[in-house]
Amino acid sequence: MVVSGLYRRTKPKLWHDANVPKIIGFDGKNVYSCSHCRTHLTMREEMISKAFQGHNGRAFLFNSAINVSLGPKEERYLITGPHVVCDVHCVKCDNIVGWKYERAPNNGERYKVGKFIFEKRHLTAEF
């Protein structure tokens, strides 16, 4: 059947705008979400340590994250010395929720490279 010069489709085709990131969610519980928009960011099982200090209080170190975008790399002087990091933004609300370690100054700090810091005040636990 032809409608207005187009073929009618039985199922609607879902389009994805390449400029808008797809948001992924975890099934089940034990999820940490963005406190601003509730977008899933990481899982409890990915947590390495709760013994970190963020810009505004307590922070957690995680192995991985989803639904985030990274800012430009920059050198920052943190409590343990100079590191190369990039800000981590929530893809939905674009708030800065933490940072990712890109380079560490010495062997004792290299375990952090490639890991994510999320500040507690930007996370909501869904357990």
How does this model look, in words?
This protein is mainly β and 127 residues long. It is built from no helices and 11 strands. It has strands spanning 2-3, 6-7, 31-34, 40-43, 47-54, 57-62, 68-78, 81-90, 96-103, 116-119, 123-126. The strands form 3 sheets. It has a 6-stranded antiparallel sheet, with no helix packed on it. A 3-stranded antiparallel sheet has the order 4-3-11, with no helix packed on it. Strands 1-2 form a two-stranded antiparallel ribbon. Residues 1-18 have low confidence and may be disordered.
Count, helices? 0
Major β-sheet annotation: 6 strands, antiparallel
Model regions low in confidence, pLDDT < 50 over at least 5 residues: 1-18
Cα separation of the termini: 50 Å
Please give the number of β-strands.
Answer: 11
Q: How confident overall, as mean pLDDT?
A: 85
- Helical fraction equals under 10%
Looking at how many chains there are and whether they match, the oligomeric state comes to single chain
Strand order of the largest sheet: 5-6-10-9-8-7
Strand content: over 45%
Rough outline: globular
Helix vs. strand class: mainly beta
**What is the rounded Rg?**
19 Å
- Output the helix-strand order: EEEEEEEEEEE
Briefly summarize what is shown.
The protein has 127 residues and is mainly β. It has no helices and 11 strands.
Give the topology.
Blueprint: E1 2-3, E2 6-7, E3 31-34, E4 40-43, E5 47-54, E6 57-62, E7 68-78, E8 81-90, E9 96-103, E10 116-119, E11 123-126
Antiparallel strand pairs: 1-2, 3-4, 3-11, 5-6, 6-10, 7-8, 8-9, 9-10
